[in-house]
Amino acid sequence: MKSTETLVWIIYDVTIDKARGRIAKLCKEAGLYRVQKSVFLGTIERNRLDELTLQFEDLIDEQTDSVYVFPLCQADFKKVQTLGQAFDEKLVTDEVKALFL
Question: Where along the chain is Mg(2+) bound (predicted)?
Fold first, then answer.
């Protein structure tokens, strides 16, 4: 991972289908991996993460929707615990599984 990148979890609960779909598309375009239907994980340039956050703000209804952006350093990421069915097996790629090894 480059020094200008950060590892990030993005988790959202958005009520409008069009906005929810657009957020998923933006995450994919940013190179993040889908872990569950509304959960993305991956490394991203910090400036790109700032841009993405601004785009999310434009898409959501702040009265009803939620978007969580959790940047993590590698050391903290290694402390992540997954319990039960942590991933949607239909959505998770080998790249995501490799992050946890």
Answer: 13
